[in-house]
């Protein structure tokens, strides 16, 4: 949040809070006065993230608004306040926070400069592993000699997540989509590899 003019009282202005939560100041004011519509789960998640709430505080906010809290654990997209503080200190460094499925939740400006804005994707394409098999441009960031390894790594990673999270998980949903539509994924998945991770530095093409 950029520094504004000096003020007589501490804390954020209403407009600043609204900006952090990705909503209009008018909508925030109506929520504050209990005159607005019931916030959606998506809006509540944005508020919790913008205000750097802990996961307990986030769950409390959801219950106050009449919604069940999102699931906890590795599949959760909630970023802890501590991790956000770390990212805030890395503004001059390429860095990002991603889910276990490779869905980008937050990037530093230098991270965007290096890889592009990967928070813009929606649906299955939010997953970097899904994009690897379905969007040829996803491979442009890596040197050609690394493509075969990356293909194995993404296929093995998704296989491991399906086993870990179960048949009703988002990982299983992505795997089913790729099995139905992508010959390369089917072929590499048939190798039954697990735990493929980089042992050397991956070179990016920028």
From TrEMBL:
SUPFAM superfamilies: lambda repressor-like DNA-binding domains. InterPro entries: Cro/C1-type_HTH (IPR001387), Lambda_DNA-bd_dom_sf (IPR010982), MLTR_LBD (IPR041413). It holds the Pfam family MLTR_LBD. GO terms for molecular function: DNA binding. Residues 11-58 form the HTH cro/C1-type domain. It comes from the Bacteria. Signal peptide: none annotated. This is Transcriptional regulator, XRE family.
């Amino acid at each position: 949040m950029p520094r504004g003019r000096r003020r007589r009282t501490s804390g954020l202005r209403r407009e600043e809070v609204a900006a952090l939560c990705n909503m209009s100041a008018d909508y925030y004011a109506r929520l504050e006065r209990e005159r607005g519509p019931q916030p959606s789960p998506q809006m509540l998640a944005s508020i919790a993230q913008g205000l750097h709430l802990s996961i307990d505080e986030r769950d409390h906010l959801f219950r106050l608004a009449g919604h069940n809290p999102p699931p906890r654990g590795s599949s959760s997209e909630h970023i802890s306040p501590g991790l956000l503080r770390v990212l805030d200190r890395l503004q001059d460094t390429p860095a990002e926070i991603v889910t276990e499925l490779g869905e980008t939740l937050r990037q530093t400006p230098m991270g965007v400069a290096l890889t592009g804005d990967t928070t813009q994707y929606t649906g299955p394409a939010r997953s970097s592993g899904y994009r690897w098999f379905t969007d040829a441009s996803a491979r442009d960031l890596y040197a050609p000699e690394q493509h075969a390894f990356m293909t194995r790594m993404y296929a093995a990673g998704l296989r491991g997540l399906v086993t870990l999270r179960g048949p009703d998980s988002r990982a299983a949903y992505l795997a089913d989509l790729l099995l139905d539509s992508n010959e390369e994924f089917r072929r590499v998945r048939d190798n039954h590899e697990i735990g493929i991770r980089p042992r050397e530095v991956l070179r990016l093409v920028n």
